Inverse folding.
DNA sequence: TTGTACGCGTTATCAG
DNA sequence: CTGATAACGCGTACAA
């Protein structure tokens, strides 16, 4: 049995498509009796309008797209992502939208952006390449970036990553550490060179080092790792088995720091006595793990809410501010406290 | 400047819509010169086919829907959900699909299911009400249920919840506990009465109790809580301040157990000495929290993968097995070990 | 090798 | 005031 279409209802009821459509969407424009008859037939036949055809003519899809920085398995291995999704989701539901996760196809965002049937797009954790932005523009899609670079002509939601990074590095140096192992997160090749938050955080870390003693810069070991516990574990193994073993490991996100802590425990290295560990993000696990993780607490949930809020306003055709900077705070916990 | 459509390209190039479409989708059917000319014009004008119109004529949307048991903020507060999404996402990407989260609209799943432009649907953590299933059927949407009741005419992915629950409760009783506080998770009103996994787990818990001493049944305190840390915290407060204070709290999912542990710590109640705590799911946090949480480790990631795998086969029109039962194991950790 | 016509629901525009 | 016609957007079976 084939799908029931509006044409079937029209044919059977003897009215035109227009009248049938009005029966559902604009009851005031047709007679009461006509409407009752049409609704009755539709109910009997179990008519459900094809959502796609509906979206096509209404030019509204009832869903917004979330452009992910990594493939889904990796992205959702980081609960910072879950926090952001929670915030976006709250606004989506309030406005009756669903939320479409658009992962990179073959390491590229282009394909997904070209073919996404969405009312607007939120990017997260990355600044899309110029060609990706161009496609979004060509498609006239409203567009908000979480953790992107301000000034690109689209709204950006973020924190002051540079100051936050400087704050946590300063704290580490206050503990008397001299050899810092820095673990950055890896991005898609597409955005690796320009990832705004990574650039900002690195600058912040360097600022803190520069204010103390420039020589320290030479001891800064930079490693890249996927943003996951496994990634952090491997990075820790590399750093902690090197000849210049660091006395502090500063991770650019909490999940990596969790991996570092896990490796340290397995290897019999005590935190914070043997090595200090810090993260960045303030995910729930940072307060659950032992030792508790010193980190920058940033409002992932609020970021998501604000981003979705701005996007909804853009979708509605309202102009919005182009930069929202939310507060982030240094949270000092056991993983970085030198007790001598 | 309005959108560039295929008609514009046709008009400007002097060819018909068909020819333009073939230039992109079936190059072999037109002349090489014709194709080059059309592609050149399209590139110059920045033509991007409207994804919705494309979906309409191709009857393929390139996305699958995930019907969530709770609103997004609550659902993603539970990292068991993240695990499942990771598994689904891996398969989606492999097949070039995106993933649409369909939350309940005003406590109801119906609206979302009616208007979802997706190739298929995965339900999770709930058994859709009969009317929801009916709509999915009417729409001829392929459909797979994670943690649903087998035998409904659609494939179900799950574990043996009854045996798993019996195993963990037996373990608790082995520790000598006599007053069990049981915390169940709350569902949407729509499915509350029939949630298959809850019914199965309750049965398993009761089986274990029944095998020891029927009198224990009277001491079983059942509480409901939202599946979140906050929910677990509140449930713990109620249970631990009651006159018949339990010597074990058995939670139906890990996030609730995490809340119980958090409350116990704040209230100065020691786990496992004062009260034993167990969870269910085996989320990553269960191994991070201290004391480490005794739980049932179930393969959320694999559940997602299997479900998406079956769904993709259904979308491709292939018949599939209608019940996949994955293994789950009892993992005994510190939170339930009585050391006397 | 290329063009015509159709499917799908909504709505601006027109006819009665 | 009520109801019908036609156009939108794309891919493709079918006709030429």
């Amino acid at each position: 049995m084939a799908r029931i279409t509006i044409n079937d209802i029209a044919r059977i009821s003897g009215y035109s498509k227009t009248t049938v459509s009005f029966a559902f969407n604009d009851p005031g424009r047709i007679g009461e009796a006509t409407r009752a008859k049409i609704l009755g037939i539709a109910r009997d036949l179990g008519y459900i309008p094809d959502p796609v055809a509906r979206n096509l003519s209404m030019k509204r899809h009832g869903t917004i797209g979330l452009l992910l920085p990594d493939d889904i398995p990796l992205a959702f291995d980081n609960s910072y992502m879950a926090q952001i999704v929670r915030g976006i989701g709250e606004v989506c539901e309030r406005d009756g939208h669903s939320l479409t996760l658009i992962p990179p196809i073959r390491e590229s965002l282009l394909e997904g952006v070209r073919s996404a049937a969405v009312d607007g797009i939120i990017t997260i954790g990355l600044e899309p390449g110029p060609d990706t932005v161009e496609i979004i523009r060509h498609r006239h899609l409203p567009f908000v970036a979480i953790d992107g670079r301000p000034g690109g002509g689209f709204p950006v939601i973020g924190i002051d990553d540079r100051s936050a990074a400087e704050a946590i590095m300063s704290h580490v140096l206050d503990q008397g550490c001299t050899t810092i192992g820095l673990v950055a997160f890896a991005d898609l090749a597409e955005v690796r060179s320009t990832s705004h938050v990574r650039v900002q955080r690195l600058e912040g870390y360097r600022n803190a080092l520069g204010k103390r003693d420039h020589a320290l810069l030479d001891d800064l070991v930079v490693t890249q790792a996927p943003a996951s516990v496994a990634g952090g574990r491997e990075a820790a193994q590399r750093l902690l088995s090197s000849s210049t073993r660091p006395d502090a490991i500063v991770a650019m996100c909490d999940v990596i720091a969790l991996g570092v802590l896990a490796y340290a425990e397995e290897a019999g290295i005590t935190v914070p006595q043997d090595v200090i560990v810090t993260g960045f993000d303030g995910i729930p696990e940072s307060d659950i793990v032992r030792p508790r993780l010193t980190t920058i607490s940033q409002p992932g949930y609020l970021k998501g809410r604000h981003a979705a809020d701005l996007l909804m306003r853009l979708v509605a055709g309202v102009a919005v501010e182009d930069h929202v900077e939310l507060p982030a705070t240094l949270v000092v916990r056991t993983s970085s406290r030198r007790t001598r």
Summary: The CA atoms of residues 63 and 301 of chain B lie 19 Å apart. The first strand of chain B starts at residue 63 and ends at 67. The two ends of chain B are 78 Å apart (CA to CA).
